[in-house]
Every structure is written in structure tokens, then in C-alpha cells.
Amino acid sequence: xxxxxxxxxxxxxxxxxxxxxxxxxxxxxxxxxxxxxxxxxxxxxxxxxxxxxxxxxxxxxxxxxxxxxxxxxxxxxxxxxxxxxxxxxxxxxxxxxxxxxxxxxxxxxxxxxxxxxxxxxxxxxxxxxxxxxxxxxxxxxxxxxxxxxxxxxxxxxx
Length: 158
What we know:
Elements: E1 21-25, H1 33-54, H2 57-70, H3 72-75, E2 78-83, E3 86-91, E4 94-98, E5 103-108, E6 112-117, E7 127-131, H4 136-146, E8 151-153
Parallel strand pairs: 5-8
Antiparallel strand pairs: 1-2, 2-3, 3-4, 5-6, 6-7
Helix pairs in contact: 1-2
């Protein structure tokens, strides 16, 4: 194979770069059992309201299905990786990578970080919140290194 014919270009990190960090975020499971109970309670209330309003169980099933479609991110784990290439998000086998250059600003909070994108990062919207309470020190080190001057540290964001 020709050295220049590689399908994926991996750029070397500058010397002294913090190591990559990988973590899983699953809102239905990770925060607390209380959060899971809240989601189940909402589903029961929606089903009961649909059953009471329409008089049929089929409407209750459709309402719960619609709720699951709208809140699908609660039911699926998301894997994030912060590395020299940027922030990579993997959901259901799909991967999105946001390079460091596409991040206009990062706001560091006590339980995670909010990334605000410039025009080239709009594929994921204008911002992305990364909940990473256990990995926050390592993620903050990467942000300080790659986003020098674009990182705002505040405990008000959580």
C-alpha cells in the first residue's frame, strides 16, 4: 500500500498533548435510578391519558411509541471520545467527529462541558452538551490544550 493512499488521515498530536479520553453517556441509566423512574412514570401517565381520552388501548400504545421516538436518546448509550482529532460521538454504529477547529467556544461546568460550534460544525446543531462528571478533569485537560483561549470555566453550568 502506498503511504499516501490511506483512506483515513491521522494527524499526530503535538508533543505533550493529554491522552485521549473515552466515556459512555446513557441518560436513562447513568444519573440515578430516580431518573429512570421518572421516565417510566411519564410513559405511564402518557399511556393512561391517551387511554382515558380515546377509550382505546391502541391510542395508548401509539402515544407511548411516539414518546419513545421523541425521547430515543434516553434509551440509547452514546460513546464520546476526545482526542487529538476532536470530539467523536458514536450512536447506534454512526459516528460524528467535530474537529477542534469547528468549536468556537467551550463552557466548562461542574458536571460536563457545552461546546458551541462555528459555521463548519453545524451538522450537529449550534451546540452540544457533553455530560462527563467522572471524566471531567481529563476532558478539561484536553479542552485547555486544544482550545487555548476558547475555554470558559464556570461552575454555574451543570
